[in-house]
Amino acid sequence: MSIVDKLLETKQTIPSNVKLVAVSKTKPISDILEAYHAGQRSFGENKAQEMSEKYHLLPKDIEWHFIGHLQTNKVKYIAPFVNLIHSVDSLKLLQEINKEAEKNNRIIDCLLQFYIATEETKFGLDYNEAEELLKATMGKLKNIRIIGVMGMGTFTENTLLIRKEFSLLNGYFKQIKQNFFNDIEYFKEISMGMTDDYRIAIEEGSTIVRIGSAIFGSRNYT
Ligand SMILES: *Cc1c(COP(=O)(O)O)cnc(C)c1O
Predict the structure, then answer these.
(1) For residue 139, is it within any domain?
(2) Residue 222: is its pLDDT beyond 60?
(3) Collapsing DSSP states into helix, strand and coil, what is residue 37?
(4) Residue nearest to atom 6 of ligand 1 (CA)
(5) What pLDDT is recorded for position 221?
(6) Confidence band of 84 (pLDDT split at 50, 70, 90)
(7) Does 222 map to a domain?
(8) Is residue 221 assigned to a domain?
């Protein structure tokens, strides 16, 4: 099946109120253009320099989503154009994003990444760390906007476990909404769900799914 066919087939399984981010990491410009010409406008990357190179080569109405672990010294590569950083996992990183956003005269939207899986290799905040981060920054960082939460489920066939993790993230979202963003309309996003688990994520309240291999095929890491 072509990328276009896989994209259209995937889109049919996603309700219209859920945003699809097509994860194009490691994939060539030509693949992204195929999806673009079929109407896809949101793409996800997990390396700052790779995303910046692609940004410069591709149409400017693409929305770029940064979904990987972001080092503070790489923020400058994406700050001029990134639409949403899904992976904020420290105060230091948020302060750096704010600083680079200010330099670029922009406000950058961010999600707080939570650690919800049972795998040591994954990044993210726990609930208390997130509250500490919010207490330290609320009203202070003028060039960032926290619009929701993000998380990655465990890589497993155990769908009950995955469902529990996504439900936990939804619970964190609600609690943070209540404690910090009660009347703030823009705090509304829950980024969860990838190729193997996005259907469960949508059932558990996801508003953004990040799907790569179902659209572009499997990735070769070399
Ligand atoms: C790679 C990646 C995805 C997409 O994974 P697929 O299984 O190919 O859909 C989603 N989210 C994050 C954070 C990723 O790194």
Answers:
(1) yes
(2) no
(3) helix
(4) 212
(5) 65
(6) very high
(7) no
(8) no
The boundaries of the domain holding residue 75 are 3-216
Return the CATH number at 85: 3.20.20.10
Residue 54 C-beta-side C-alpha neighbours within 13 Å:
30
Does residue 26 sit in helix, strand or coil? Answer: coil
pLDDT tens digits, one per residue of 162-215 = 999 999 999 999 999 999 999 999 999 999 999 999 999 999 999 999 999 999
* Dist. CA 105 → ligand 1 center (Å): 30
* Total number of domains constituting the chain: 1
Question: What's the gap in Å between 212 CA and the centre of ligand 1?
Answer: 6
Which of 25, 194, 202, 213 most suits a substitution to test ligand 1, by most atoms within 8 Å of the C-beta?
194
Mark 10-47 as b/e (b = at least 16 C-beta within 10 Å): bbeebeeebbbbbbbbbbeeebbebbbebebebbbbbb
Tell me the pairing of strands 189-191 and 19-23: unpaired
25 within a domain of the structure (yes/no): yes
Q: How far apart are CA 55 and CA 183, in angstroms?
A: 34
Q: Give residue-wise pLDDT tens across range 21-72.
A: 999 999 999 999 999 999 999 999 999 999 999 999 999 999 999 999 999 9
d(CA 196, CA 168): 18
Q: Cα separation of 53 and 81, whole Å?
A: 12
- Which secondary-structure segment (H or E) carries 43? strand 42-45
